[in-house]
Write a structure and sequence with these properties.
By secondary structure, this protein is α+β, with helices and mostly antiparallel strands. The chain folds into 3 domains: about 70 residues; about 50 residues; about 70 residues, Head domain of nucleotide exchange factor GrpE (Nucleotide Exchange Factor Grpe, Chain A, domain 2, Roll). Helix content is about 60%, strand content about 15%. The strands form 2 sheets. It has a 3-stranded antiparallel beta sheet with strand order 1-4-5. A hairpin with a 2-residue loop joins strand 4 and strand 5. Helix 2 runs antiparallel to helix 3.
């Protein structure tokens, strides 16, 4: 038997169990105490992230609006003369057409040369202001973005004695321009007057 004054094994075990329980309780209390603070930090971080993303989106929207406004201003400046040029085009077309019917005997006439110079000056002024002529050719593929078909024809003007050749040529000319009625025009790359054509 041990001394009466020394602690027994049971006493020692009781002491260690009590100490362990106390440490566990203290640790649990410490976690409970810091949980609200940790949750608050997490919420603030999430809110900060949301605010940053919102600011980035707002900045991107603002930059897009600036670009769109700049483009609109540029387009307005480029096409400010559109109506005036459209009104000039019939005069220019008539001038071109009339010069196409000058007899060969008069082509060296000084008066005719003067009119041709006026037409060329007219063309330069229009070109300097962004006008570009659309000049389709017979046999060219019909392009609805550049051409307007005012008539469709089935005439082939082929050798009627050669059926195979006629069929082949008819297939080749499918959706092709067979006659040009008038040229078209673009202004700064935008079609303002399509070329008038006859399509097979």
């Amino acid at each position: 038997m041990g001394d009466e004054g020394s602690p027994s094994v049971m006493d020692n075990m009781g002491f260690f169990v009590a100490l362990l329980l106390r440490m566990t309780f203290s640790k649990k209390n410490m976690h409970t105490k810091h949980e609200p603070q940790h949750e608050e930090i997490t919420k603030l971080q999430a809110q900060s992230e949301e605010n940053l993303n919102g600011w980035k989106r707002a900045l991107a929207d603002y930059e897009n609006l600036k670009k769109q406004t700049t483009r609109e201003k540029q387009d307005f400046a480029k096409f400010a003369t559109l109506n005036f040029i459209v009104e000039l085009l019939p005069i220019y077309n008539h001038l071109k057409t009339s010069l196409n019917f000058i007899p060969d005997s008069l082509k060296d006439n000084n008066w005719v040369k003067g009119i041709e110079n006026i037409k060329n000056q007219f063309a330069r002024v229009l070109k300097d202001n962004g006008l570009e002529e659309i000049v389709p050719q017979v046999g060219e593929e019909f392009n609805p973005e550049l051409h307007e078909a005012v008539e469709n024809t089935d005439e082939t003007q082929l050798n009627p004695d050669d059926d195979d050749n006629q069929t082949k040529k008819a297939i080749e000319m499918e959706n092709k321009i067979v006659k040009v009625l008038s040229d078209g025009y673009k202004l700064h790359g935008r079609v303002i007057v399509p070329a008038m054509v006859v399509v097979k």
